[in-house]
UniProtKB/TrEMBL annotation:
Protein family (similarity comment): Belongs to the CpxP/Spy family.
Keyword set includes Calcium: no
Gene3D superfamilies per record: 1.20.120.1490
Name under which the protein is recorded: Spy/CpxP family protein refolding chaperone
Subcellular location, record wording: Periplasm
Species for this entry: Roseateles saccharophilus
Superkingdom, taxonomy of origin: Bacteria
Amino acid sequence: MKAFQIPNLLRAATVAAALVLGGAAAQAQPGHGGPGGHHGGPAMMAPGGLFGGHMEHLLDLVNATDSQRSQIEAIFKAARQDLSGQRETGRKLHEQMATLYTATNVDAAAIEAVRVQMSALHETASKRLSQASIDAARVLTPEQRAKIAEIMKKRQARMAARHAG
């Protein structure tokens, strides 16, 4: 079992965030549930530079203004700060789980209790980062979100083609 680490969760979620931004754009298009429609699912961004570089590149592609970049950076800086304390908690839970699995007698109830705690930690991070992604999407124009959706659709098609062959 891999340790729950906020930085890894955030890095992996950069693309998910772009999908949410793109999904929001798709929802804003006629015939897709109207403005503000939502597909659901977690939406998260990565730390490091402005979102690990991936979101910075997307913001470049949609010609985001300095003001938009500053607002989005502040949104995710706040989210990272809100979640910073969870890293140590996740590490301790992982260690606790490993100890439970290596004990002489495997205690199913104790393992389930730790699993529930780990799930709650993941859910908290997911909710906070989803809200940050929603806030960031609202900073961008519908046209910018539509362009991100187009970029992500092409990226998904390339990934699918790689995995199919």
